[in-house]
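[step 3/7] fold_predict: job queued, chain A
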Amino acid sequence: MERADASFTEAVIEVLDRLQPGEVMAYGEVAAEAGYPGAARAVGNLLRTTPGLPWWRIVTATGRLVPGNETEHAARLRSEGVGVARGRVARR
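[step 4/7] structure written:
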């Protein structure tokens, strides 16, 4: 089981490392691209517990920002040119 966790972590970090400033993905998209479809919550847990990852580039499938941390999340996204309105990434 520990090996699978390490593989999951490495795969998710690989996906996150490819994200450029201004690019936004949903938790589920990250999980699927990493080869773990259905592991959206695990992606969220990894982002919450692993310092240094670009957590602000990840939102819910509906574009919602991190509850309780919307102000910082919005500020980081806006600094990269991403539109944010009413606690969600604005549609382009």
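[step 5/7] annotate
The longest strand covers residues 25-26.
DSSP finds four helices and four strands in the chain.
exit 0
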